[in-house]
Amino acid sequence: MSFRAARPRLRVAGLSAMIVLTALAGPVSAVDDVTPPQGTLTIGGGSGYSSSLTLTLHVPATDDVGVETLQIFRNGELVSTIPYAATVTLTLPQPSLWQIGVSWRDAAGNATSADATVQIDTTVPNIGQLTFGPDADLGDELTPVGVQNAWDDGSPITAIRFRTGAGAWGAPFTAPDGNPMVVDWPLFDPAAGGSPMMGARTVSAQVQNAAGLWSASASATLNALPGLVTIAVSGDVRTGHQVTFTPTVPAGLVYPAGTVCWWELYWGDDASLYEGTRNDTFGGITISGPLSGGYCGPWTVTIPWVPLRQFLVSFTADMGNETGIRAMIGGHPGDPTAVRPAVDSTSRSITYSNLPMVYVLPDVYQLIVGVPATYRAFALAGATILSTDVWSVQYIDHPEFKSGGSVFTFTPKIAGHITVCWNGGPTRTYTISACYDPPARYRDTTAPVTSAPIQQLGTTSVSSTNVRLAIKWSGSDKGWGIKSYQLQRSLNGGVWTGVALPSPTAKVVGVDARPGSTLRFRVRATDKAGLVGGWKYGPTFKVVLGSDANAAVKYSGAWTTAASSTALGGASHRTGSRGAAASYTFSGRDFSWISAKGPNEGKAAIYVNGVLKATIDLYSATPLPRRVAYRLHWSTVATRTIRIV
After folding, report:
1. How far apart are CA 76 and CA 101, in angstroms?
2. Checking DSSP bridges between strand 624-644 and strand 373-380, what pairing results, if any?
3. Measured distance CA(515)–CA(497) in Å, rounded
4. Contact, 64 vs 40, CB < 8 A?
C-alpha cells in the first residue's frame, strides 16, 4: 500500500602609443637642500654580540641629492671620516662593550646619525655537564638530553647541538631556559647528530654563545635502545600451517655478546590475555636462549587449533646491564596486530618449530574436582625432556610440584582457577616452558534448557517469493554454562534440517521463508560438560503475503489505484485525503505493513483494535519499493484488526 544572467565581457584591443617630450627653453631656478639623509646602522648580523674585534657595519642611507660622507664614532669619539659606502669595517682595540655611532652627511651639509651597542666576546662558553632524562635508556624516539651548569660571562648561551661518537654535529637546537638546558633530542636521526646504532653509544654536546663561539665538548655514554621495535608476520596464517615471526629492529642494531632473547606465544580470550582472569581458552609457550643459538632471529612455528584463536606474540632481547628491547603484537584488547588465524586444521598439536621448544596438551580440557587429569609434554627442534624438568600446579592458595617426565597426572582438589605448567629444569642452557589455565569445576549433572523458538517478521524489503524472518530463543544452564545451540527447521511438515547460526551461542538468527509455506522450528543446547538438553518446539505457522487488492482489506475515504511494477500485486492504493483509512482483520501473532517510501510519500497512523500504536513517516529522499514500514509481534495467536489512517 503506497501513500504517496549572462555576465558582460569587456575586451580591449591592444593599443600602442608614442609620447614625445619636447624641451622648452625658459628660466631655471635652484631650490635649497634642507633634508638630511635617511640611514640605518646594523652591526654584523644584528645580534649585538661579536667574537671578532673587526666589525662589519651595514650603513645604507638615501638622500635627495646623494650622501657624500660617513663619520664613524667609538664610545662617542670620532674615529674617521670617509666617503659614503653602504658597508664599512671597523676594528676595535680590545674586547668590551662598545657604543658605535655613525653620521651621514650630504653635499649641502645636512647630517643625521644613528648608534648601536655591541659586546665583543672572544671567550668560548663553558659546557658544564651532559645529562640524560630518566627514561633515556628506554629508547624513546625523542630522548631528553641536557647540559647542566653551562655558562658564559661575555654573552648568553643561545644554541646547543649533539653528535654520536665521532660523527658530524647535528643541526643546533635553540638553547632553552633553565639549568639543565634540556631538549628532546631525536637520538636516531642523523640530521640531529644521532644514528640508528643500538646499545652503548658516546653522546657529545656543545653550546654556542650569542657571539657565535662553540664550547668544548662534554660527553657521556647512553645505552640507546629502539623505542619502536616491531614483529613482522609472514607465512600461511591458518591453523596447522607454519607462520614466521621476525623482529624488525633498526639496521644499526648490533647485539652485544651475552644477549639473551625471549619468545612468548599466548592465546585466549581478552580476559585471559589482558585482564589476568585466565580460563579454559588460555594457553602459552615460552622459549629463550643465547644470541648464538639463533633465538634473536626469526621464529617459525606451526599455529595449533585452539578454541579461541586470538594469539599474542612478544619478543624480548636482554642485552645485560638492565637494558633490553621488546616488541609485541596483540598487546591490548582489540589490537588489530593480534594473530587471528583462519581454520584449516583442528589439531591442537604443534608439528614444527625452528627453535627448541616444548608444548603441553591435556588429555581433557575440563577439570573436575576429585577426578584425575593428565597432561603431556612434547618436544620439538632438538629439545629434550629431562628428569630434572618440573611440572607445577598452582592453585589459588598454594602450588604443587613434580619433577621430570613427559607425563603428569594430578587430581584437582578444589574448584576454581588452576595453572598447570611444564618448565625446563635448572641445568638447561635455554629456557622452555608451557602452561594451561583450565578452571576446575564440580561435576555437572544438569542438562541445559531452552525456551521454545519464536518467529518474528523481519525489517528488510519483501518480494513475492521471499519474506525474511527472525527466529529467537533463550537458554540457561545450572552447571558449567552453555557451550552451543542447535536449531532445526521443518518445512511443510517435512524432515528436520539444521539452520546455520552466526556463532555457537547465538540466540537469534535470520531465515528466509517463501510465502504460503508452513514452517516450524526447534532448538536445544549443549553445555560445557557435554550434556545435551531436550528439544523445545516452536509453533507451526504459515507466512501469508497479500496485496492491498485483497478483498480482506477494507477502504474508507477517497482512494485511487495506480499500476506499479514494483508493488506487490502490480498496483497500489493511493490517497491524498487526510483521514482516509485501510483496515485488515486477521488471526495470527505477527503483522507487517509493506509500503513504498519516497520523496512524495506521506504519513500514516497505525491502530490495533482501535488503539493508536504509532505514526509512520514514509518520506525517503530516494524511492524505496516494498519496505517494511511497520511490524507487530504478539506472544499469542488472536484475531486483531489493523487500521492504517
Report:
1. 7
2. unpaired
3. 19
4. no
- SS3 call for 270: helix
Residues across the chain: 645
**Residues 172, 161 contacting (CB under 8 angstroms):** yes
CA angle 415, 417, 423 (to 5 degrees): 125
**Which tops the pLDDT comparison, 1 or 8?**
1
Q: β-pairing, 61-62 with 142-148?
A: unpaired
Between CA 361 and CA 374 the distance in angstroms is 9
* pLDDT-derived band at 571, boundaries 50, 70, 90: confident
Q: Is the pLDDT of residue 11 over 70?
A: no
Which alpha helices (DSSP H) does 414-543 contain, by range?
none
- State the average pLDDT for the chain: 85
The pLDDT tens digits for 513-523 are 998 899 999 99
Query: CB within 8 A of 27, min separation 6: which ones?
Result: none
In order of 94, 119, 423, 580, the CA distances from 46 in angstroms are 20, 11, 72, 89
Give the residues across from 523 on adjacent strands. Answer: 487, 536
Half-sphere exposure of 454 (CA within 13 A, CB side): 12
Percent of the chain with pLDDT over 70: 90
Which of the four pLDDT bands, split at 50, 70 and 90, describes residue 567? Answer: confident
Q: What nine digits make up the cell of 454? A: 519464536
Q: Dig out the grid coordinates for 589 from the structure.
A: 501473532
**Set of cell numbers at residue 520:** 516450524
**Confidence at residue 397, expressed as pLDDT on a 0 to 100 scale:** 62
pLDDT for 168 equals: 92
Kindly report whether the peptide bond that precedes residue 256 is cis, defined as omega within 30 degrees of 0: no
Query: For residue 457, what are the β-bridge partners?
Result: 469
Taking only the tens place, the pLDDT of each residue in 71-94 is: 999 999 999 999 999 999 999 999
- Reference 125, options 181, 217, 208; nearest CA is 208
Residue 5 is predicted with a pLDDT of 32
pTM over 0.70: no
Question: What is the rounded distance in angstroms from the CA atom of residue 631 to the CA atom of residue 457?
Answer: 7
- 590, 472 in Cβ contact below 8 A? no
3-state secondary structure of 272: helix
- 3-state class (DSSP) for residue 539: coil
User: Do the Cβ atoms of 130 and 56 come closer than 8 Å?
Assistant: no
